[in-house]
């Protein structure tokens, strides 16, 4: 192949079809007409504003807000919570009293932090003013729960009962020895303690025995005996 022709062909990862006359002994196709080469096109990822992050947060009259740089403190009738924001986002108080979480940079991480910290901020405001709760259900013969001082004691089929100390800031109620209600103003702490109760005896898929969330749907499996015809 002439040097001018070889150097004029753009580099491509695509294999050229044979569309001309072959050069004997070289195995190279001499192109007889124009060939369109596929080129790699650079695309730009657009970081759209988070659908959750752009929503304002209403602050009740009984909730006090304190802001200091990237730090936010929220105090209400049920308690006080604090949060430090990453450099990608910041929180602002508008003249109307609404709180808004805004992005500082247009990056993928900033977009993720935008929605996440808006949700965390809203949970703080709702938590100190109204509170949250998580309900669990004990399913199984002999499974029961009782309160002893600051501890919750679970009978879950083990050789000995499980005793757990209730963390500060949380309240626990037991109804009919089989229903547990964990409540408080810190949604994250509520979820963590409820999960720690559940992990002692997660619900099994055959009979549904165990500790489950009240709104949890257990996917049941058919036992081997049920498969026999």
TrEMBL record:
One annotated GO molecular function: structural constituent of ribosome
Record-annotated Large ribosomal subunit protein uL6 alpha-beta domain positions: 59-131, 139-213
Gene3D superfamilies linked to this entry: Ribosomal protein L6, alpha-beta domain
PANTHER family: 60S/50S RIBOSOMAL PROTEIN L6/L9 (PTHR11655), LARGE RIBOSOMAL SUBUNIT PROTEIN UL6M (PTHR11655:SF14)
A GO CC annotation given for this chain: ribosome
Superkingdom of origin organism: Eukaryota
Coiled coil, from the record: none
Descriptive protein name: Large ribosomal subunit protein uL6c
Matches recorded under InterPro entries: Ribosomal_uL6-like, Ribosomal_uL6-like_a/b-dom_sf, Ribosomal_uL6_a/b-dom, Ribosomal_uL6_bac-type, Ribosomal_uL6_CS
PROSITE patterns named in the record: RIBOSOMAL_L6_1 (PS00525)
Pfam families: Ribosomal_L6
Record NCBIfam families: L6_bact
Family: Belongs to the universal ribosomal protein uL6 family.
Annotated organism of origin: Cinchona calisaya
Keyword line: Ribonucleoprotein, Ribosomal protein, RNA-binding, rRNA-binding
HAMAP family the UniProt entry points to: Ribosomal_uL6_B
């Amino acid at each position: 192949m002439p040097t001018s022709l070889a150097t004029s062909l753009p580099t491509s990862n695509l294999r050229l079809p044979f569309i001309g006359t072959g050069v004997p002994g070289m195995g190279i196709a001499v192109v007889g007409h124009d060939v369109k080469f596929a080129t790699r096109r650079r695309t730009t990822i657009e970081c759209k504003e988070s659908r959750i992050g752009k929503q304002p947060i209403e602050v009740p009259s009984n909730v006090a807000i304190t802001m200091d740089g990237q730090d936010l403190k929220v105090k209400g009738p049920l308690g006080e919570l604090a949060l430090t924001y990453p450099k990608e986002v910041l929180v602002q108080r508008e003249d109307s009293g609404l709180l808004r979480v805004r992005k500082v940079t247009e990056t993928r991480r900033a977009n993720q932090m935008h929605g996440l910290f808006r949700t965390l901020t809203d949970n703080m405001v709702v938590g100190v003013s109204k509170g949250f709760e998580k309900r669990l259900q004990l399913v199984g013969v002999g499974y029961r729960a009782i309160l002893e001082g600051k501890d919750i004691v679970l009978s879950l089929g083990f050789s000995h009962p499980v005793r757990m100390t209730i963390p500060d800031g949380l309240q626990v109620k037991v109804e009919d020895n089989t229903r547990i209600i964990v409540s408080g103003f810190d949604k994250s702490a509520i979820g963590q303690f409820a999960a720690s109760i559940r992990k002692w005896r997660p619900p099994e898929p055959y009979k549904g025995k165990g500790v489950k969330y009240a709104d949890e749907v257990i996917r049941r499996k058919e036992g081997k005996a049920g498969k026999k015809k």
